[in-house]
Amino acid sequence: MNYPTRQLELILKDIAKKHEYKLTTIASGWINILERKGKMMPIYGYNFPNNNASITKIFDDKSGFSEILIKNKIKCFSHTYFMKGYYELSSVKTLFSSLNEDVVIKPNVGSGGNNVYHCTSFSDLEEKINLITSSHLGFCISPFYSYTTEYRAIILNKKIKIVYQKIKKDEEWRFNLGLGASFSDDVSTSIINKIQKVISSVIKILPISFCSIDFAFINNEPYIVEGNSGVMMEKYSKADKLHYKKAFKVYEKAIKSFFASLKK
What is d(CA 126, CA 100) in angstroms, rounded to the nearest whole number? Predict the structure, then answer.
């Protein structure tokens, strides 16, 4: 089967050409391996080896990630996990009531906006639980917040390298670019500084090197929506030559940073 070529693959080819890396692509483009002077850098999907494996898992675990943030007094959207076969429906109902019967339900890992639902009745929530658990080991529930703009920050070596705002479609409440949301580079210095301050607090407890974090401002305070250990910039880099170049530079720096770490 021929899968469409991802933007990341195109960028990696350009980086390999510029720096004379050997690039091997397998698994229909999902695994890319860069080589230089006997050193290898495997890239799986959008996950780069710059990150510690356990930190990667924590970042992608919505409930685990939010619980660590809450314990460290970092504002975030709480995610409560329920494993299939190990929970009582009454516990779900109690949580639903405590969140004013206005919640978001989703798989605990992954999504991209898929299998993510806004529920305001328990009958609808039960229906979505059955739908999600038909293909996942469990689900997590978070409070629903109403806001108009979400921010994505791409972080490399503790610093924001790219930040943009995501604007949802009028008829859509989710902010996924893959679901039709648009993005804008128009982000004030004040917002960037507030986001960077939170990121610095996160990295003190979860020292990740290369990631993205989504933020929403609730009562003028930055809240972490979710973290992502994989750095995907498909829609961003495809917008035009300028954004392709920006994505190229970030991926290039991440690659150079990884190869430099192998010398230590």
Answer: 16
Q: Tokens 């693959």 belong to which residue?
A: 9
Q: Identity (one letter) of the amino acid at 27?
A: A
Nearest to 76 by CA among 215, 220, 229, 176: 215
Number of H helices, E strands in the chain: 8, 12
Task: Name the pairing type of β-strands 149-156 and 182-184.
Answer: unpaired
User: Which helix (H) or strand (E) covers residue 254, if one does?
Assistant: helix 241-261
Q: Show the tokens assigned to 32.
A: 């890319």
pLDDT tens track for 6-64: 999 999 999 999 999 999 999 999 999 999 999 999 999 999 999 999 999 999 999 99
Which of the 8 DSSP states describes residue 230?
S
Dig out the tokens for 26 from the structure: 């397998």
Q: What is the 3-state secondary structure (H, E, C) of 41-77?
A: EEEECCECCCCCHHHHHHHHCHHHHHHHHHHCCCCEC
End-to-end alpha-carbon separation of the chain, Å? Answer: 41
Cα–Cα dist 120/92, whole Å? 13
Q: What is the CA radius of gyration of the chain?
A: 19
Question: DSSP letter string over 93-147?
Answer: HHHHHHTTT-EEEE-SS--TTTT-EEESSHHHHHHHHHHHHTTSSEEEEEE----
Question: Rounded to the nearest 5 degrees, what angle is found at the Cα of 83, between the Cα atoms of 61 and 143?
Answer: 65
Sheet holding 117-119, edge to edge: 80-83, 138-143, 103-106, 117-119
Read off the pLDDT of residues 74-132 as tens digits, 9 standing for 90 and up. 999 999 999 999 999 999 999 999 999 999 999 999 767 788 999 999 999 999 999 99
Distance CA 34, CA 12 (A): 9
